[in-house]
Specification:
By secondary structure, the chain is an alpha+beta fold. Helices cover 38% and strands 29% of the residues. It is built from five helices and seven strands; from the N terminus they run ββββαβββαααα. 27% of the residues are buried.
């Protein structure tokens, strides 16, 4: 889990699920200056940033990888910096998820240990908030001043899934050949 930034142009939005607080896109595709496409899946966008983003928007887009049990959401698009304006979302999904996961974990752990995944996720999210590694404003300003390079690539869970899929395919081919 962590913060990262992608510089480029928004070229596609996937299907979305809308409620009063969030829009969850199936994916958002960002194309950088070299033409490389980055597809970020299951992205939550709150109203502050949603008011700014559109197809063809060029700038720096800030994401936060979050862990949600059940994987409805993998990351949050929480900031955008364009030539016209800078926007940082007021809704910190990581804080909301940390509290929710901790409460679910505390309530459901006594029932056959069903709450342990929630509790572990909540502890990890709370730790990132306490140690400052998920300080969005500080990260935003560091990227904008050039103190930190924006990391490119989709959320970790998607990279791991792709790597595991390739490994299984390679093993299957090797096994079928012998």
């Amino acid at each position: 889990m962590g913060l990262y930034a992608l510089k480029g142009t928004i070229s596609q939005f996937g299907q979305c699920e809308v409620d009063n607080d969030l829009i969850v896109y199936a994916y958002i595709e960002v194309v950088d200056a070299a033409g490389r496409r980055t597809l970020v899946k299951k992205v939550a966008v709150s109203v502050d940033v949603q008011a700014v983003i559109e197809l063809g928007l060029e700038g720096t887009f800030f994401f936060d990888e979050v862990f949600v049990v059940g994987r409805r959401i993998l990351s949050q698009l929480w900031g955008a910096s364009t030539s016209d304006r800078d926007v940082i979302d007021t809704t910190n999904l990581r804080t909301i998820l940390a509290v929710t996961n901790m409460l679910r974990g505390i309530v459901f752990t006594p029932v056959l240990g069903l709450g342990i995944p929630y509790l572990l996720a909540g502890i990890g999210q709370t730790w990132s908030l306490i140690d400052g590694s998920a300080n969005r404003r500080r990260y935003f300003h560091k990227v904008m001043t050039g103190d930190v390079e924006g990391r490119s690539g989709p959320p970790l869970a998607e990279r791991l899934g792709l790597a595991l899929g390739r490994a299984v395919a390679d093993l299957t081919r090797r096994h079928a050949g012998s």
